[in-house]
Amino acid sequence: MVKLSFVISALTLKYFKFAQPKNKEKIKVFTCTKERTELVYKFMMSTLLIYLFNSRFSGYHTHLDKETKFMLSLFGVVLIITADWNELKC
Question: What is the reported pTM?
Fold first, then answer.
């Protein structure tokens, strides 16, 4: 649902930038919406990486070695830490 919202806002933003470049208010609204939904999507995917590949959660079995699981879990943490949280202040 979040990705669908992102795609719709991105396509609408492209339309307004192409067809109505003078409509700065709508361009600003859809830019903010696109950035927010992208940030939410990244956050959700990062938490999913942490949940699936963290060694503490043993309910989900994968055929990966411990180092790969650790690196994927660490990648999720890095994505959350390096996210641009100022995008929420549009």
Answer: 0.74
